[in-house]
Amino acid sequence: MEGKGTTSSTFSTTITTVRSHLIIRRLPDYLLMIGAFVFLTLAVLCEMFIPLYTGKLIDILRVEQHWDDFRSAVILMAVFSIGSSFSAGCRGGLFMCAIGSFICRVKLQLFGSLVRQEIGFFERTKTGDITSRLSTDTTLMARAVALNVNVLLRTLIKTLGMLYLMFSLSWKLTLLMLMETPLTGLLQNIYDTHYQRLSKEVQDSVASSNDAAGEAVSGIRTVKSFNSEPSELHRYNNRLMDTHNLKTRRGTVRAVYLLVRRVMNVAMLHYGRLFIQHGQMTTGSLVSFILYQSNLGRNIRTLIYIFGDMLNCVGAAGKVFEYLDRKPEVSTDGTLQPEKLEGHVCFQELTFSYPTRTDHNVLEDFTLELKPGQTTALVGISGGGKSTCVSLLQRFYQPHHGQILLDGQPLQNYQHKYLHSKVVAVGQEPVLFSGTVRENIAYGLPDCSLERVQDAARKANAHEFICELNKGYNTDVGERGNLLGSSQKQRIAIARALIRQPQVILLDEITSFLDAESEQMVQKALANCSNHTLLVIAHRLKTIERADQIIVIDQGKVLEQGTHQELMEKKGHYYKLKEKLFADDSTHAQDKTRN
24 and 165, same structural domain? Predict the structure, then answer.
């Protein structure tokens, strides 16, 4: 019992939360909703009076010389019919406009909430789940808000109105009908259960018959070899008879159900005739009552269906609002925005593991200093923690222990936008978005001038090749930049970083897949970054040799640090790594010298 109570309480809380969310997010559409509810009420009222005046017409036709009353009743029926149709159309249109606006707003808010989440959230959550929330679940939620609420309110108002009119026609007959309703509901439930079960058995039996015929036909050589035609015929006949018997049982159940329903209807008509004989009802009133009764049954079934459907939609809405309300684990509440930034970075005793592998520390008690204006190169075997340093500096993750200081202040103290303008990264495979070269360089800076874009392109050694393109800075780069070469994409990515006037630049293996000529162009671009604090991860010896300090990392710890010359003289880890990792570079250089 306690478990049931807890489940009920949780479900009630979920409905309350979803309802409050829907109300808050629907406020901008309140005028459309008010108009829709007004037309909904008018449509229901007009529709309810049509059966009433149908009965009045029958009573008028039974009496001679009442043409004025007849004409008035016909005019009123026409007015109610036209009013019902017009109001229903306006109601549906306003509801659709409101729900269209609501869906766009919720999708935009959901997408905004998603892009604010930390990187770990996307690593833990499947892409299919995210896109499902963004498309399918928002649509289901809209269905709960618009279609179901529309039908629910219309049916509820109509049901209450019809009950009132039925009481006004004959309260005795209405009470009899209300006493019959639970029996009808029970009968409907029993019928649905048995009919669905028998329908499934019929489908299975038909499939079994088809299997028997299929086996005999596909194995006809074996059947003929063993003279089994009579036995196969007998087997197929048995399957057909099973199907026939099941269909007969299903038809019998339906016939009994319809017979009981008809008996109930006849009983109601019998009582109506008695009331007419005793002068308690007119013939027209009985006709109106029967019309209301048939509509009432449909309305009750609709209410039951809509309630169940709304429960399903509440689940979808709960999933959407779960993402909408989620707070990123990596805080972006910092406010620090100093006018001048030196670019002095300190990793202080960091311990970190990825959200998907919490049992394995990528960095452990890791300490590192990046001095302003200097280039620091991280080297080591794959999986040692080099790229993790870049990710932590961009605040994609929050370290479990320790902290990263930028000019003596923890990274989380800096304002989010300011931090990402002063600490920028260029990756191994830069992501360009469909659009022009100018739009990609000025990505995230909507008011950026062309002069500023060109200045950044010159610093990135990209201006010349951009000017040679068909439309210059207005040239479309294609989806993910596929209309440009690797070197061109890298230099545009460097320009995109430099346009923000950063103080710390993170370069993660940006020359790994470039040929010698392309690498040389990128190296020239990097030469323009001499006043910045550079953190470089590279597998090319040229890039590493030029660094002011080289840090050797393995299993999340610093093994050695110093200049290229100092580390070579030590003949320690770096010396061994040079022979192992940079052998291809040396071979390539020797081949080039021979040629």
Answer: yes
